[in-house]
Amino acid sequence: MDKNDKRCEWCNSEAAMETILPVYWELPCGTRAIQITDVPSVSCEECRMNYQEEQVIGEIEDQLMLVDTSQIEKVITHKELMKLPRMLKRNYFRF
What we know:
The protein has about 100 residues and is of the alpha+beta class. The protein has a single domain, classed as Roll (Ubiquitin-like (UB roll)), CATH 3.10.20. It has helices at about 55-65, 80-85, and strands at about 5, 15-25, 35-45, 50, 75. Strands 1, 2, 3, 4 and 5 form a five-stranded mixed β-sheet that branches. A hairpin with a 5-residue loop joins strand 3 and strand 4. The mean pLDDT is about 90.
């Protein structure tokens, strides 16, 4: 398997590859959703599923819990989101 090839978490095919995609995410407060561009993702040629791995999902969810989301515009890059200053050092709700 090439280093960019992955096993698809949905169909178990070896036709999945790492890619960069935009995603839409509901803010933890539930008041609105934002678009996050350039998110590390996986795309499967077999089942056509596009998804983010659990580690990436956790990083995004933690960051959105720890930053002032009122300062986030409708669209933000993944890199910009992850660089936003945190109000707490870590997500104390994740056990």
